[in-house]
Amino acid sequence: MSAAMQSAALLPLRQEIGLFPGPPALDGSPSWTLHDPSAHRFYRIGWPEFEILSRWGGASAGAIAKRIRAETTLAVEDEDVEEFGRFLLACDLLHVSGPQATAGLVGKAERRRESVGRWLLHNYLFMRIPLLRPDAFLTAAYPLIAFVYTRAFAAAIVLIGLAGLYLVARQWDTFLATFVDMFTVQGLVWFAVTLAAMKVVHELGHAFTAKRFGCRVPSMGLALLVLVPMLYTDVNETWKLTSRRQRLAVGLAGVTAELGCAAIALCAWGFLPAGPARSVAFLVATSIWLATVLINLSPFMRFDGYYVLSDWLEVPNLHARAFAMAQWWMREKLFGFGDPVPEDLPPHRRTFMVAFGFATWIYRFILFVGIAVLVYHFAFKLAGVIMMVVEVVYFIVRPIWLEAKAWWSRRRDIRLNRRTVITMVVLAMLIGLVFVPWRSGVTAPAVLRSSQHVDVFVPEFGARVAEVSAAHGNAVEKGRRLVRLTSPDIDYRLGRTKGELDTLEWQMGSRGLDAALLARSQVTEQEYQAALAEYRALSDQKRRLDVVTPIDGVVVDVADGLEAGTWMPAKARLMSIVDATGVVVEAYVDESDLDRLAEGDSARFIGEADSRIDIPLRVTALSRASTRLLTEPALASVNGGPITVRTPKQNELVPDRTIYQIKLTPAEPQARPERVVRGTVILRGEAVSLAVRTWRAVLAVLIRESGA
């Protein structure tokens, strides 16, 4: 035993450190809880550690171990005492004094001091801001609300909830209509206010339940999770509770309080008149508590569900222990290092810990990627990109890098056997998949159509078909009438306006003979000009009732039911005119794929509805300007197409990502398509690895969002 360790083992325990009985361990052995009041931290220790602490004062490590072996059935060695002494010293639970001890504490503080960047990173991701010291208030108020913990109150809440379900079932359509009303500015305001109120109820549920079992609640406040505000309550003193049922009650108290409010609100909704109060009752009864249950009961983050599961399993620090077990299992399966198990657990418990560790990693990976995407889309330009990169690097890339680094540092421990050979082969294949430039194909959504394809529509007002002058397959010249429409409304308004013009012209011509007409001559001229403008507009609308072809071509795809006497709604499609001289394909590629393509590249068009449509193509044009508005409605997501678009204005399709248009022509003569055919173009481009493709995509985003 080293002299330093010998000295550390003899340091006395700090006088203010508390020791409390803990719940039984998994094997049934007793446990105890150490409480450091200055840091408000709790440490769970087992029977051997308790026996060491019981003999701690003024003895050496060897003497303590000898006494324990003599006085108990425990086989404690000197090294066990030394290791426990190191744990106490690392957690600052020992009383140290003297220049050497002071220098050691200063050095530890220096090592714990974070750089400005790391501090900003940690506090941006998660930060607690204490706002209240509620313990005195909770102590005084608890007698007033103690009735909510009685069986009678619980039964009353259940009955109220059942009554609410009955009332809602009788007004189900109205209940659903209330949900639709929430998608307004006023509805969003009420949602925010109600959410804040329910979060207060949630935290008070934890606080009062902890106070019920005699625990102190030192603080309540605001926590920022990726800058999203959340309330929190410090109920760490529940570590002192030896009853698992009591700890579970504290953990579930927040959700239970919200469910109780939801039951009352559901019943109140059935009696309240339409208005803000009923909207609030609807929110509490549905979306608010449902959202909080889904979030708070997840055991994969350190919310209520995590602590409930930890207490139910009697496994403190569940995440850290599950991660250690999953990491050990993974390394043993991949490399067979032969490391000891992190802790001795029954087989079924060990399997659960490994599965839980992997499930938590997968959940957090998806969560942090989702948060990164949200940050990128909702934060302003460059800041959004930086925040997204920080989260991806810190939460995804960094853990993978550290694990790979650990594997490399232990490469000498890897034994050549069947397991390691399989691991190396799979690892090599993954590396090749990422870094070898094997991927040369580029797929892009596309449409196949005639080189000119024009849809003919009814004007922006409804009309009746008077005559159809062209049929499917007819060749037509530019300017030829296709359909003659009539509109009795326009004819009536034209006749009325023509009568007004005749009257006003007579009045202007007779104003020299009538003093009254002369006095209002200026008004008459203004009325005449207004009537003349209306007459010209109506005449233009009437001329547009003769629908003509804008190009030379062939009539195709005539609308069903297009015949004389049929009423057609405004902007309805009548037929299409296609140019019989050529066929063209228009496709849209992502920004990261554009540099891999060049004019003359070969490609193929595969029809979506009919895979037999397989046409060889050549690239004839590459657009160097991104597509701001999608001109092919067939490809838009609102029409069932593969390109996701936004519609800020009617008939305006704005892609939600950066895409570029390319044009292709068939390598061999093709029959003229009678309609637009949606499909996929497969192009032969420059071979590029997934790593390079990802880097190009990231670089393109950085350049675009930085405004460079």
Radius of gyration: 38 Å
**Largest sheet features:** 6 strands, antiparallel, barrel
Query: By helix and strand content, what is the structural category?
Result: alpha+beta
Count helical runs. Answer: 22
Overall, the morphology is extended
Q: pLDDT average, as an integer?
A: 82
- Overall tally of domains: 5
Please characterize this protein's 3D structure.
With 708 residues, the protein is of the alpha+beta class. It folds into five domains: 3-112; 117-314, no CATH class; 323-435, no CATH class; 443-451 and 582-706, Elongation Factor Tu (Ef-tu), domain 3 (Beta Barrel); 455-574, no CATH class. Helices cover 51% and strands 18% of the residues. It contains 22 helices and 22 strands. A six-stranded antiparallel beta barrel has the order 7-16-21-18-17-22. A four-stranded antiparallel β-sheet has the order 8-15-13-10, with no helix packed on it. A four-stranded antiparallel β-sheet has the order 12-11-9-14. Strand 2 (32-36) and strand 3 (41-45) form a beta hairpin. Helix 3 packs across helix 4 (78-90), helix 10 (185-212) packs across helix 12 and helix 14 (318-335) packs across helix 15. The two termini are 63 Å apart.
Topology:
Blueprint: H1 3-10, E1 18-21, E2 32-36, E3 41-45, H2 47-54, H3 61-71, H4 78-90, H5 99-112, H6 116-125, E4 126-132, H7 135-145, H8 151-170, H9 172-181, H10 185-212, E5 220-225, E6 228-233, H11 244-269, H12 276-296, H13 304-313, H14 318-335, H15 347-378, H16 381-409, H17 418-435, E7 439-450, E8 453-457, E9 463-468, E10 475-476, E11 481-486, H18 488-509, H19 515-519, H20 521-543, E12 546-548, E13 553-556, E14 567-568, E15 573-578, E16 583-590, H21 591-594, E17 602-607, E18 614-622, E19 645-646, E20 654-655, E21 659-666, E22 677-688, H22 690-706
Antiparallel strand pairs: 1-2, 2-3, 4-5, 5-6, 7-16, 7-22, 8-15, 9-11, 9-14, 10-13, 11-12, 13-15, 16-21, 17-18, 17-22, 18-21, 19-20
Helix pairs in contact: 1-4, 3-4, 7-10, 8-11, 10-11, 10-12, 11-12, 11-13, 14-15, 15-16, 18-20
